[in-house]
Amino acid sequence: MAQEEGSASDESARRPSTLPAEQVDEAYEIVVTGRGLPDTPAAPAYSVRELSREQIVGSPSGRLEDVLASVAGFQQFRRSDSRSSNPSAQGVTLRALGGNATSRALVLLDGVPVADPFFGYIPFTALAPERLGQVRVTRGGGAGPFGAGALAGTIELTSADAALLGPVSAAALVNDRGGTEASVNFAPQLGRGFAVIGGRYDRGPGFFTTPADQREPASVRSEFESYSGQIRAVAPIGADMELQARVLAFADDRTLRFEGADSSSSGQDASLRLVRRGDWQFDALAYVQARNFSNVVISSTRFTRVLDQRNTPSTGLGGKIEIRPPAGPDHVLRVGADYRRAEGQLQEEAYSAFSGNLTERRRAGGTNSDLGLFVEDDWSLGAVVVTGGVRADHTSISDGFFIARDAQGAVVTELDAPERSDWTITWRGGAAWQTSDALRLRAAYYRGLRLPTLNELYRPFVVFPVVTQANAALRNEVLEGYEAGFDLTPAPGVEFSLTAFDNRVEDAIANVTLTPTLRERQNLPAIAARGLELGAAVSRGRFALDATLALTDAEVEGRGPSLELDGNRPSQTPTFAAGATLAWKPRDEWLFSATLRHVGEQFESDVETDRLPAATTIGALAQVPLGGNLALVLRGENLTGETIVTRNSGGSIDLGAPRTVWAGLRFGY
Fold first, then answer.
1. Less CB within 10 Å around the terminal CB: N or C of the chain?
2. Is the pTM of this model over 0.90?
3. How far apart are CA 232 and CA 320, in angstroms?
């Protein structure tokens, strides 16, 4: 198994560095972890949930978004997964603070932000679960590295190392509709370091997202094809430093609802990270992202092309430096800075639904940047740990424009958005009191920040016949919140947690309905969310139960752009969500598990006219060893065939995945 942060690997990192390098190498074994710096003592002060390797690769669907759904409060904009949704709708959030398709939670892969620079969505098809070793979700606003994106919380993905993956691991499965899933990873030890080379390929004819009574001759299945490949290398540099490098490439193609309604997303990411675990610890990284997106909109009445968003290139780059100087045995001090820059441009053409002729050419884009400075300290006082941190962000929105020309090249609409910049102060603080071996009490207070994305500022979009306009005047979102809770371990293998929270997002960005066919992105006065998050984990012999539940009262505060919004529930936000997985391992390497998920009723839009009914699904997984490192795998999604409504626009319905059964082989898992 890979060593956890704060384990013996960190003891080796604290070896003396006064000896010559060759003597240090002889006296101490250099251990390369491939991770960042160890957890700080105050991590338990916040609402944190960790998912193990077994939970990550044990999902009935084999999708990361399904794995994350086991965390109370995790939510995508829509209920559909990454095989049957438009990529630009794959924003993630926590604590019922949704309402649009942009991520309000910060997602990191080995410390690097992964959200799309233009849209803010998460490229789930690029994040293969089998390449991960651990997932940690921290709910509540963040103020540390890259804290400006952690409005609702942080989702940290940690790659599996060579020791956990083994030299070779692979899987191949097929489902009852002819879809396939295949992956392979090579993880050789290279001297005192290691490398992981992995790839994954998914394809399938999909299913009809349109109900049978609404299908037209142009209706088609949600066909998809995607691949991702990653090379990651970790090498020691001296006795207490290591260099981590990663290159990731992915591509994804989908068809949704109608023939010709094709979308694609692709990317190439690279990052370098240098970690030192000596007396003066530091974590420095730099990254670059090259992404693209395209989308064709088909009229739902005449079934002809009305919009071709043919090219949306974007670039993201950034980095951070975090330093932990020696501050005494009772303190862990973190000081640092980070920088992010996103730039991109939309290129699209609009066509007449009647004649098919070109009507407009549109271009839009801009540049967003954020420079953050942060300091945070954890102070251990016996059974109590107190933490506090502050962050200053200089945000800049520049180069924004939108221009539309008719078929003859004459300007129809033109916007040159004024440049603007500002400083924003955010913070977080908390305390954890270990009252006994069985009980820990915790409380936290925080203030978080999120910039509007280039997509929200400049790109209008169409889900025919509804048009959503962009808004170049959008202000930054700011969250203030507090929470309190406890973690209880009454007996070995039995854990319970409860968190009560109150979060409020000022200037929350939402798609505000102006007419039945027109919406605009606007800043609401606020979205407030109050609720409870419960968790339980019980392990008894060869049985294990893991369950979570979220109860949330969320509403729009104030008299916003429309009087009807005051007191409404944010769109796409359930009051109740819960999940539970029961696993049984009759012998080593055997596994049988069943997963139940429930999502409560939601509203499609801000005016609460179209409802998405509650949905309850059951999934299952069985893994039976066949000898050596080979195992038979059977998986089932939505085994009861529940009807999952993912979109309801005036009665026009989209559906989520129906019953799906998978069978295949795994090697080396």
1. N
2. yes
3. 19
